[in-house]
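Regression test attached.
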Amino acid sequence: MKKVFSLILVSVLVLSICSLPATAQDTEEVPLTGESITVYNWGDYIANGEDGFIDVNKEFTKRTGIKVNYDTFATNEELYTKLKSGGSYYDVIIPSDYMISKMIAEDMLEPLNYDNIPNAKFISEELKEHCGFDPEGKYSVPYAWGRVGILYNEKYVDDPVDSWSILWNQKYKNKILMFDNPRDAFGIAQKKLGMSFNTNNPEDWRAAAEELKIQKSNVNCQYVMDQIFSKMGNEEAYLAPYYAGDALTIYGDNPNVKFAIPKEGTNLFVDAMCIPKGSKNKEAAEKYINFICETDIAFENISYINYSSPHVKAAEMHKEYLAENFGDWAVEVIYPETLDGCETFIALDNETYQLADRLWLEVRNSGDYTLTIILVIGALALLIGFIVFLRIKKHRRENA
Amino acid sequence: MKVLSRIYTTLIFIFLYAPIVILIIFSFNSSKSRSVWGGFTLEWYSRLFQDETILNALKNTLIVSVVAAIFATIIGTLAAIGIDAMNKRLKKIIMTLTNIPMVNPEIVTGVSLLLLYSIVFGILSKFGLDVSLGLVTLILSHITFNIPYVILSVLPKLRQMNKHIYEAAIDLGCNPFQAFMKVVIPEIRPGIMTGMLMAFTLSIDDFIISYFTSGPTSQTLSVLIYSMTRRQISPKINALSALMFVTVLSLLLIVNIRQIREENKAKNSKSIVKL
Amino acid sequence: MYKKVASLPYLIWMLIFIIVPLLFVAYYAFTTPNGSFTFDNIIQVKEHIYVLFRSIWLGLVATFVCLLLGYPMGYIIANSTNSKQRTMVLLTMLPMWMNFLLRTYAWMTILENNGILNSFLELIGIGKVRIINTSGAVVLGMVYNFIPFMIMPIYSIMTKIDKRIIEAAEDLGANRVQVFYRIILPLSLPGVISGITMVFVPAVSTFVISRMLGGGELLIGDVIEMQFLGSTYNPYMGAALALVLMVLVFICMAVMNEFDDGESEAIMI
């Protein structure tokens, strides 16, 4: 045992030596200042040096000497929870519209100092009309925007994909994916029922929850977020609602996957950079936000993630890039002529949020559990019977 | 019967190793996909060593498990010595306490530690002290779940130990500390080593408690892998795991072969003596 | 006397990092966000009673399968030659050196509709079987991850069985079946019991396996995680669920102890 241990220690040493080169390389332009910021972003939502694009965070460190710690989340709610539950501090976060207004209402964000973010002038005025969550831009600078639509594999889906109701079609049982976050999932049911996303009427939310329960029992949809990339790409699933930009990424892996915007209308989302309260280095965080808004960086970044850019110049360059690499249809998907019929999420009442959370768990837990309960009780009865049996046997043996 | 049991063990080992084999095979896959084979490549192995996020997570994992294992071993060994000297009733109470973190579902332990840290941080921030989840909280949590395993592997050795040796050492002029270092520790060393190794292994493999107690700058490998499973695990991670796995496998094989050889030698010499 | 003092650091440590945090869990379970006392959280647990039952059921099935597969394995290992024994023990423990998330992730590749297993089944003419995103896949994931915890205690108790007892029984005319039922099985019971608890507790509270292999069906662990770090933030509710889960597990332990005659201690790997 002793030898095993010492050998393992040696291997540990070897492995840690292997990790040395990482700290010894690059940064020739600006020496490290010792400062660092922590960025919290959506998973795979930044150019990271792959597929021929620059590594945005590394480039930032190169130009400013500020180190970037990078962490990712999968849903807005996860980001909110992480900040609320305490213990973790971030300098730049990139939540979506409704979460930003919720955080503003709960005084979780720092107002931005635009003197440090001169590049904010490039942000499209047109888009700002859709930024009802932070009308004056006091707290946030848009990072990317887009629309929610339905991804479908045209090899297997032969019905026209023009309505949210196709996600309730039993023909595609077991092959439908669904958002694993309450706001997006309820949004789909609400649009299917012709409601607004932003209703505070509890009855509306209950009706939407019923609709989602029906969907779950009829088509046995799986609730996923970013796993959609591999599941749609590998043809494990044929239908999924998701964000327009990711449709292009999946199309790149599997050209059978197409994207459609349903006629009932859809969600226009805006993800924006904010600085949460508790940031330890606000100035460096503003530098980072400004850096993201530099035209060349914004273009490289948006071409990697393929969402729609709020940056006027980068958006023009991105349109050319899309037309060249995907075709004109991609330009129409990412930068549509009209945004009519699109609605943006805004903050709800606190009671509505609580109701939504409860209803969401109800939907996720719905189903027929009678059999399970009978089985569990049966198993427990068997177990107790067995114990009693053993006791009796032991008792007899002792008496004998 | 023998053939049957051989078939059975083979099947079980296939079950245990099928996913590992697949992970290793896909570390040589030139396509990023986790299920489509795109041709052979060694690219991921070279790119692994340029990926700061992964290397950083590996570094964190090693720091946390080594430090936590050492501290847990020290605290746990001392605890075992104390427990061994207690009377039966007290011993029983302490052992029940020791069992709590082992029996309690890991998620409950993780959640309770998260609550502890956030409450303490909340109080500290009122005094102007900004602390956050990071390597320190991670190490504290790991020590916590490691200690019981150390105690449980040291205790039996203490019980087997001849109590009179210690007294003899005292009689021969050792002070208690010397007696402890020179007599007790060598006697229970195998137990300490097993406990330490076990603590180290548990720390390396832990996900649930790390998930609840690590901060954004102190991700361990398993937390990083978890954030990757939500989308697609990079083949670089496959490459890293393959390397780690092969290292451990070969180490164990070497040790095992050596042991067998030594045993055979011992057997041979015994039979010579008999002759 | 001074020896007892040696355990003082440990006792202080456990007080701070085990007892106090668990008290916090209990405290949260009985408070509202405003800090006043309430039973609402505990009452609301009944909304999750189905998930709880589902978790218990899958945990029980997984434990049963582990026992079924692990018992013969422990028996076989314990009865092989010394060198073989050591190799087999190492082989059983070795998978734990590879991250369990990765190994579970690899099962996705195996079990998928277009996965390796289905391609194989199609090749030999059976046709595709839907495995992933079913409860079956979740049980398989649990069995896979926790079976070493069943094999090890059973194996270690089997090696402690005195071979002379078995020989004596054989000399007294017992056949193999009788030897097994009358001697090996009762003597290995403590190992079985510690194996059952070591598998059931992590299985019932797991929170990643069902997310990866079960297609989004929730288990109780997932719900707790969602309340603390996931998409529905409510640590008060989460604490209540954690408390219920903890109580449930401790009841299970008490029941399992009934089987035990109380003489055997926790069996270590």
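Expected vs. actual: identical. The interface with chain A takes residues 47-48, 50-51, 53-54, 56-57, 60, 112-114, 130, 132-133, 215-216, 218, 223, 226, 228-235, 255, 258-259 of chain C (CB under 8 Å).
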